[in-house]
Design brief:
Helices cover 75% and strands 3% of the residues. It is mainly α.
Length: 184
């Protein structure tokens, strides 16, 4: 199913599979196609080179196919979708004109949509946190200004109280000085 996809490329792949099977280079069963002999890989340098060049890509394709099948079999849950570097690698692979099955395309599309939704949600949360931080910073500045003003007013009130106390004592002293000069 992975090799023979929908469309023109799928028909070409089916033709190639038939020719390779007819030449006994491949063994094809209901759901798989395998190289008939290990000797083909060992003795065919060009095939060995192709396999070596595409090993990482083949691994990514295999992982994508497995993940897509698992995702579909599990009921298409968001938790099973690709995110981050795995999604980037799979998307690059899909962008290279590679034929993907319907399930793999749906899996990648759902992964992209989910990641985009999560990123936009994270951006909204970040904006809200920044706004909240700005409000808290403004409140802190207002509190510092109000505290400084209160300290200044307290110092002024103490000086005024001291001056008033001194005036009251001076007035009492003048009153008492008339009758009791020693006490005044």
């Amino acid at each position: 199913a992975e090799l023979v996809s929908e469309g023109e490329a799928g028909a070409e792949a089916a033709t190639v599979l038939e020719q390779l099977t007819g030449s006994r280079l491949l063994v094809v069963s209901d759901d798989s196609a395998e190289i008939a002999h290990e000797a083909l890989i060992r003795e065919w340098p060009r095939l060995r080179g192709w396999l070596a060049e595409d090993r990482e890509e083949l691994r990514t394709v295999r992982q994508l196919a497995t993940a897509a099948r698992s995702w579909e079999e599990a009921g298409c849950h968001e938790d099973d979708l690709y995110r981050g570097p795995r999604l980037v690698a799979a998307a690059e692979l899909a962008g290279e004109e590679r034929q993907l099955s319907r399930v793999e395309r749906e899996f990648l599309d759902a992964s992209r949509e989910t990641q985009d939704r999560e990123l936009s949600s994270a951006r909204r949360r970040t904006r809200r946190l920044r706004a909240l931080l700005a409000v808290v910073a403004a409140a802190l500045v207002v509190a510092l200004v109000a505290g400084s003003f209160a300290l200044i007013q307290r110092g002024s009130a103490r000086r005024t109280a001291t001056v008033a106390q001194a005036g009251r004592l001076a007035a009492q002293s003048r009153e008492v000085a008339a009758q009791y000069p020693d006490l005044g």
